[in-house]
């Protein structure tokens, strides 16, 4: 069965569909990016199966013929033989793995249930895509400003001056002699710091004002429209986009591939909104996704 598995994968990677005579048809379906908990899942491709697709387009036999260097008739015979062997084993075991595509479950001897595999990395649409950890909402800084009514300002000023005087006057009136009349010459001189108090405007309906300062990030969220195995291919597309209406396009080189970012944003909400906009406006960007740069 390895022969037929390999060629079905080739057809799905190049044509988005593959028909297996006597079994049914496999179709590639594209899912958009979505948020799951603390993560943003990138757009991905999955596989569905329809047993009602019975029209034989001959593409599977062509691939087998091309790979093995045999005639089309011989290749069609191989596909038919391996399909019958798989269905025979499925009737016995009830559940079998179908290569890297997924698995089949046979119910009531007639009903086929296909479950796609979780790892479909052989599909180009799933190449190089990773989950993105969403930033957590930071606690904003708060500046508290108190407004004191003008009528109470002098009262508070007097209390404050008295407190400062007591704080700095450690040697105030240390004499233990009993005097019968007021003699201010016995008191030590105290130099108080100069205090300037400016009355604030009284607001009848508001006693304090709180202002928020929210820190913003740099342009760390990139809208990715393509990924290539070579930097040269990525640069060609980047230059083409810059000549069009996307002057902020750039390339991002990673360990696995080279990606083309069409624009960068400082927050993920703006990046996702722009991603959805270009998906609708340009068919070239239907698989665009958002990446957080380091």
């Amino acid at each position: 069965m390895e022969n037929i598995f390999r060629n079905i994968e080739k057809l799905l990677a190049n044509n988005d569909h593959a028909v297996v005579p006597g079994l049914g048809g496999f179709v590639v379906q594209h899912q958009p990016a979505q948020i799951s908990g603390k993560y943003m899942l990138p757009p991905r491709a999955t596989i569905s199966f329809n047993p009602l697709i019975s029209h034989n387009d001959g593409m599977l036999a062509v691939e087998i013929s091309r790979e093995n260097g045999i005639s089309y008739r011989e290749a069609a015979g191989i596909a038919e033989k391996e399909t019958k062997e798989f269905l025979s084993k499925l009737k016995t075991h009830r559940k079998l793995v179908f290569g890297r595509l997924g698995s089949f479950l046979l119910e009531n001897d007639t009903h086929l249930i296909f479950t796609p595999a979780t790892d479909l990395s052989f599909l180009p649409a799933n190449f190089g895509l990773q989950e993105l950890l969403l930033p957590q909402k930071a606690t904003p800084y708060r500046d508290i400003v108190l407004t004191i009514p003008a009528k109470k300002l002098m009262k508070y000023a007097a209390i404050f001056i008295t407190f400062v005087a007591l704080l700095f006057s450690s040697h105030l009136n240390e004499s233990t002699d009993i005097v019968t009349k007021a003699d201010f010459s016995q008191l030590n001189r105290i130099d108080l710091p100069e205090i300037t108090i400016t009355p604030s405007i009284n607001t009848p309906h508001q006693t304090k004002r709180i202002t928020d300062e929210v820190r913003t990030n740099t342009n760390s969220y990139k809208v990715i429209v393509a990924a290539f195995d070579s930097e040269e291919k990525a640069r060609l597309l980047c230059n083409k986009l810059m000549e069009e209406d996307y002057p902020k396009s750039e390339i991002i080189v990673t360990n696995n591939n080279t990606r083309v970012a069409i624009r960068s944003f400082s927050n993920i909400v703006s990046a996702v909104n722009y991603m959805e906009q270009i998906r609708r406006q340009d068919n070239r960007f239907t698989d665009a996704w958002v990446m957080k740069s380091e």
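The longest strand covers residues 24-31. Residues 2-133 form one domain.
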